[in-house]
Amino acid sequence: MRSVDNNGDESEADDYRNEWRILFSPQYIIPMGKTTDFAGNGYGADIDVSRRDLLFTDSEFGFTAGYITVEGKQKIGDDNSNVTSLSICPAALFFGYRVPLIFDRFNHYDALALIPRVSAGLLVMQMDYELLDNGGNVTANKSAVILEPFVKAGILAEAGITRHFFITAGCEYIYMIDSIQGLGIINFSASAGYRF
Fold first, then answer.
1. Domain boundaries, the chain
2. Could you give the CA distance from residue 41 to residue 31 in angstroms, rounded to a whole number?
3. Which of 49, 57, 127, 128 has the most crowded Cβ, counting Cβ within 10 A?
4. 4-43 tens-digit pLDDT
């Protein structure tokens, strides 16, 4: 798109697609599989920074990092312990592909789009727990820090509010690649972002 001034001179063409994007996402967390043995529901937030059309048209490539706090579960396993809380800090690279559903051709942005995306990265998890005796009395408070690789897949729905501001809602499944099979989390997000 080019604009023309009063003298008839044209500006340089604006690239409305090859753009940087930043997104802030509050999240609600639901554990799945064996994760439910030691963790309850939780909440958190993350920040995504990405570039559109970096690899090819309608692609998105970026980095995401965040913080999640999760409720602990009582008396996990056979070791007489209570998990009191979990704090999780994930960081990952992600790739997405935009499927524009409605394009605002006058203002040149996606008014509505679906974005399937996949991520891979590492998370640091701090687990605070109590050790109990056979009578259920607390004998010690412990803490462990665990580093886990993970993969994540899901879909976002994005609505453009203006040329620069947009909102999203999404659902993603996080799978922790651990020796214990089935460590997973579902996260739901409602987000606000800015593109430039």
1. 20-75+86-125+146-195
2. 6
3. 127
4. 445 555 444 454 555 899 999 999 999 888 788 778 899 9
The average confidence (pLDDT) of the chain is 83
Please state the length of the chain: 196
Q: Model-level pTM? A: 0.79
Fold exhibited by the domain 20-75+86-125+146-195 = Porin (2.40.160)
At residue 4, the pLDDT reads 46
Percent of the chain surpassing pLDDT 90: 44
Q: Is 193 left (phi over 0), alpha (psi -120 to 50) or beta?
A: beta
| Cα→Cα distances 191→26, 44, 87, 175, Å | 6, 12, 21, 22
